Amino acid sequence: MKPVIALVGRPNVGKSTLFNRLTKTRNALVADHAGLTRDRIYGNARHDEAEFILIDTGGLTVQGDDMSDLMRKQAELAIVEADLILFVVDGKTGVVPADELIAKQLRNVGKPVLLVINKTESEQKELAAADFYRLGLGEPEVISATQGRGISNLMNTLMRDLPAIRIVETDEEEAEEDTSGDICLAVVGRPNVGKSTLVNRLLGEDRVVAFDEPGTTRDSIYIPFEKDGTNYILIDTAGVRRRSKVSEALEKFSIVKTLQAIEAANVVLLVLDAHQGVVDQDLHLAGLIIESGRAVVIAVNKWDGLEKQEREWVATNIERRLPFLSFAKTHFISALHGSGVGLLLKSVKRAYGSALAKIPTPQLTRVLEEAVADHQPPLVNGRRIKYRYAHLGGKNPPRIIIHGNQTEATPNSYRRYLENYFRTALKLQGTPVMIEFKTSDNPFRERKKPAESPQEKRKRIITSRAKKR
């Protein structure tokens, strides 16, 4: 088993920057804003032959509001999971009362704790560490996560002094996990539609912070889990509002993370609010999913609080405003109470299977012939467009390439007809189908004579008549 190391400390001391530095990624959102990280973020770190799992946590504060309590609970869960705790403090501000309270708590957990003094870019090591010895946590490590200063010494200390790390160096049964066959599922939607509550319901634990406040989730949280023998990577994303309402740079970065999660996913779970129906921002998100070519499943949340007449209106509203997602399975659920949630993963698996389906060329050509027989393509310049054969050109989404004559003149209406026909005939659910056309080259095109001008034609006729006389 890989050892687990948790990063804990006050808000805005550089835990996420250190997390990105050690994991050599940019998975944790970083900004000069206190309380940015709220959930537990996991990453893999490696030094020489040793590997370990790193957990980034939200800042521990003494504030008594509900959000701080939820963030503290997430950090405490990370401490329980960890074999080692890195207590990160701010070298610029020195020891503050909150640091003393956290140090007191960590001394009682019964696990090794290493004090890490961050933000020491312009200070000497001895001067930066002098004030922190009174925390009673032993010899500290002085670093600058932004500049990378002291990171090498920090890793050497971990390798030398911590038994949890030394186990990895001699443990040969730990193999690199192959996640290529996992289903990557991104949960997206507007703010406060219940995405984090749904993620916690699917996982069966309070894995991410769920709070009745828009913008609770700020980062994209990647969570591996297993259900009924199938491995998933669940991505909880930040809510995406209309561009006119996005003013903070922090929220813009969160939206970028959400768009990256859509690109990384195999299947996207689009969460709607049943109390509000389909609004313009839902249409915008659905368009982004279609443009990315990802398979999609629709979850209409907060369904349990509606009357029969309201439910009929919501169902009609979805059918009317999302006709371009008619291929996606729609589920009416309550993430808070769990009703309908159990069927979501079945639709996700089917959408994933449809997006990565292996379809042989003879089958695609046969379906193409049936589609043309049912509805002929239009005429172009008095000649009928002719399709010869079709083959699979890509997956996720299925990309069907059709060869023939004059195929570049195929109108969009007939293209949509072919997309729907292939999807129905091949029983593909939850995934868009991309159609591409390839026109065969005319081998005699270069041998065609250029068009004859009227003067040349008249000269040819006069010359021909003169020869006859």
Summarize the structure.
The chain has 469 residues and is α/β, with parallel strands linked by helices. The chain has helices at 15-23, 66-81, 97-107, 125-130, 151-161, 163-170, 195-203, 249-264, 280-292, 308-321, 344-355, 361-374, 412-425, 454-468, and strands at 4-9, 41-47, 50-56, 84-90, 113-118, 141-142, 183-189, 221-227, 230-236, 267-273, 295-301, 330-332, 379-380, 383-384, 386-394, 399-405, 434-439. The chain has 14 helices and 17 strands.
Q: What report would you give on this structure?
A:
- This is GTPase Der.
- Residues 3-166, 183-356 form the EngA-type G domain.
- Residues 457-469 have a biased composition (Basic residues).
- Belongs to the TRAFAC class TrmE-Era-EngA-EngB-Septin-like GTPase superfamily. EngA (Der) GTPase family.
- This protein has 469 residues and is α/β, with parallel strands linked by helices.
- The chain folds into 3 domains: 4-170, P-loop containing nucleotide triphosphate hydrolases (Rossmann fold), CATH 3.40.50; 183-355, 3-Layer(aba) Sandwich (Rossmann fold), CATH 3.40.50; 361-446, 2-Layer Sandwich (GMP Synthetase, Chain A, domain 3).
- It is 36% helix and 21% strand.
- The chain contains 14 helices and 17 strands.
- The protein has helices at residues 15-23, 66-81, 97-107, 125-130, 151-161, 163-170, 195-203, 249-264, 280-292, 308-321, 344-355, 361-374, 412-425, 454-468, and strands spanning 4-9, 41-47, 50-56, 84-90, 113-118, 141-142, 183-189, 221-227, 230-236, 267-273, 295-301, 330-332, 379-380, 383-384, 386-394, 399-405, 434-439.
- The strands form 4 sheets. Strands 2-3-1-4-5-6 form a 6-stranded mixed β-sheet, sandwiched between helices. A 6-stranded mixed β-sheet has the order 8-9-7-10-11-12, with helices on both faces.
- A hairpin with a 2-residue loop joins strand 8 and strand 9.
- Helix 12 crosses helix 13 (412-425).
- It is elongated, with a radius of gyration of 30 Å.
- The model is unreliable at 31-35, 166-177, 211-216 and 244-251 (pLDDT under 50).
